[in-house]
Structure formats: structure tokens, C-alpha cells
Amino acid sequence: MTNERKSIHGEWSNRLVFILAATGSAVGLGNIWKFPYLTGENGGGTFVLVYLLCIALIGIPVMMAEIMLGRRGRQSPINTMKMLAKDENRNQSWVWLGRMGIVAGFLILSYYSVIAGWALSYVFRTGSGMFIGASTDVVNGIFGDLVGDPERLLAWHTIFIVMTMVVVARGVKNGLETAVRYLMPALFALLLMVVAYAMTTGHFMEGVRFMFMPGKITNAGVLDAMGHAFFTLSLGMGAIMVYGSYLPRGTSIVQATMYIAIADTVVALLAGLAIFPIVFANGLEPGAGPGLIFKTLPIAFGQMEAGTLVGTAFFILLTFAAWTSAISLIEPAVAWLVENKGINRLYASMYTGIATWLLGLGTVFSFNIWSDKTWSIPYIFKNYSFFDTLEKLTFNLMLPLGGLFIAIFSAWCMREASSREELDTSRWIYRLWQILLRYVTPIAVIIVFLKAIGAINS
Fold this sequence. Notes:
Blueprint: H1 15-26, H2 29-41, H3 45-73, H4 77-87, H5 95-127, H6 136-147, H7 150-169, H8 171-198, H9 204-212, H10 219-232, H11 239-244, H12 253-281, H13 291-303, H14 307-341, H15 345-366, E1 375-377, E2 381-384, H16 386-413, H17 416-423, H18 427-452
Antiparallel strand pairs: 1-2
Helix pairs in contact: 1-8, 1-12, 1-14, 2-10, 2-12, 3-4, 3-9, 3-10, 3-12, 3-16, 3-18, 4-5, 5-7, 5-13, 5-14, 5-15, 5-16, 6-13, 7-8, 7-14, 7-15, 8-12, 8-14, 9-12, 10-18, 13-14, 14-15, 16-18
């Protein structure tokens, strides 16, 4: 019986721990770093509204499906899809869905670790008072010196990879569960502290109006909101599927998914409420792009009272968010090695950590000694840096395809009796999920996918 399967890696102690872990996977640099600058670039309120609608119509149904597949298979994504394809009398080619997810997570962590290293380094830069009274040129110079020095970037990249591997090596209960029990509440507490400071700037309501008052949005902005809603929930990379495999039977997938989606969205909105009042209070530009965090906010922190304390707390928050996501990115590969190669978690974590670290060197060098070197994928991407190539390959291609195939397998290939047994919800909720997953979600994901490969020009 499928409902008697047990994961050899263990299970979460309870629903709350699973929600914290999955929320930690979803909440990362995308929420605190990317969401605010995308909101700023796309005019604020209308972008936020479209983003929230896409979370409801795209993200939640796919997340329910991915958790469902994980719990039913109880193994790494590759072995889960192999087993479920056999259970449902489907072609074994579906195993490639699991393989693509694991590879995507591995590739993402290789460059995610480098960017997370920036955040980690800024904890110490801000804490040392380096930004006190610093001008724009000084702040930009500090950032330029960091990314332009391969040895310094390599050191922070190495530290972050080691931090991640130490947690993963300890297993589900002693590693993953212990980490999220403390990191996620700490993350929320630090974020609330920065929001509380933002409320004292005198520009808090200006930030609120910017985020929630309707305004103009372009077609490209709508598609950005759709894509970010999908990516922010960590879907299509095996992380949610493997976390779902540790979910105790009897835990409601529907309820857990709703809590995770709400928590993830609240963090993104709080990040905006923390950042935009500070930006406006210092006359800075909300649409400053990716440099909003590392080039713009340090100027604000350097000019405000208690700026060293608030700024240090903010970058600790950013590091925590990146850490919880990184743990989930590599867990699928570690689980597969344990299941298929007969090695323990310590060695599996070491092997994946070393491989990820080595690939991350390409991203490290992209900002300095390889800054003039470009890479191309025939018929898809041309003349991008190593970092940009990996980012586009994963976020613009592999994750949308992963989400699309999760929707197709769950809603079209699985027997209704199988999905009903796992979801264990009311008839009308099941039918709504099925309709969204069969029709709305695939169409939306295909649009994002086509836009990503340049078929849609805004």
C-alpha cells in the first residue's frame, strides 16, 4: 500500500516544523532582495496585486501537487517519480522530472551561495560601521571592491557552502528540523524589527501607498509578477517534493500549503514595508534594480540613527533567509545519493558541497577575472556571463518546465483515487485544485516560459 511507505531519512516531528521548513525553503533572497526591487521597477501597487493573484492561481495549486507527489513517493525526487510512474502505469520517462529538479537545485545553489556570501560579508561590513556617513561613491566602491576581488568572494562562498553542508549532514531531525526551528522565528523577528524602524522614518505611509495603491503596469510587469510568484515558492526544483516526502501522514496538505504560501507572501510584503520607507526617507530611488540592497540601502543605514544596528540586523536577516533556502536546494541531491549509492549523509553532503563549491567558482569569476567572457546556449541564450547563463537556464527554463510537468502529471496522469487519497480534502476544494492545475496553471506557466526564451516581447 502506498500509504504505508516510509522515508528512510526520517520525518518531520509535526506539521508546524514542516511548515517552518517549507517556508524557509520558499523565503530566500527572492523575497527580501528581489521582490522589493521588482515592485520598485514595476510601479508598486498593481504589480503587488498581480503577484498576489498569481500566488493564489499558480503557486498554491502547484505547491499542493509537489508536496502530494513527495509524500506519496517518500523518496528523493528521482526515485519518487520512478515509483509513482510505475504506480500509475505511466511511462518511466517521468523520472526525468525528478532529475531536472535535482539538477536545477544543484545549479541554483552554485550561484546562490555566492550571492548569499555578499549578504554574509555585509553583516560584518555594516557591523563595523563601514557605512556610517558614507557617500554613494563610497558605498558603490565598497561593493565594487567586494565583487572585483575573486579571493574575497571565494572566501565568503566557501563559508556559506560549509554552513549549509553542516546542517544538511545532520539529517532531518538533528539538522534540518533543528535549523528551521530557530532560523525561521529569528528571521521573522529581525524583519519585524526593521519594519518597526521603518515606521519611525516619517515616510512609512508613503511606502504603504507605493506598495498598495493601484498604478500603471506594463505587460512585461504582469509577466514578471507571474514568474516571480512561481519562483518565490521554490517550486520545480525538487526542494518542496523532498520536504513533502518527510511529511507525516495525517497532516493536511491543503492546510499546510496555505500556511506556507501566506507566510512566504507576508515576508515579501514585510520586506517591501521595511525597505521602501527607508528608501523614501533618504531620497533614494525605489526602482534601483538589483543594487537596491547592496548599493542603496547601506547609504540609508549610514545616515540614520542606530543605522549600524538596524543595518547589521537586516543583513543577518538576509543571510538567514538565504541559508534556509540553500539547505532545501541541496537536500534532494543528498537524499538521492543516500538512497542510491549506499553512503551516509555526512559523505553525501561533503560530495555535493564540494561539487557545488567547484561550480560556484564560475560565478565567482564572472564578476572579476571572467567579466569579459561570455557564454551561449545555442538557440536560447547568447553572450551572457557565466552567472547570467546559469540564472537564466534555471529560473527561466528549468523551473517553469518543472512546474508545468508537475501540473500535468498530478492532474492528468495520476488516477483521481490516488490524488484524492493524498490530498484528503472536501470535494469542492479538490475540484477547484484540479481545474486550476489542469487548465489555468499550465497556460500561465507556458506564457512565462515563452516569455523567458524570448518568444514574447514586451
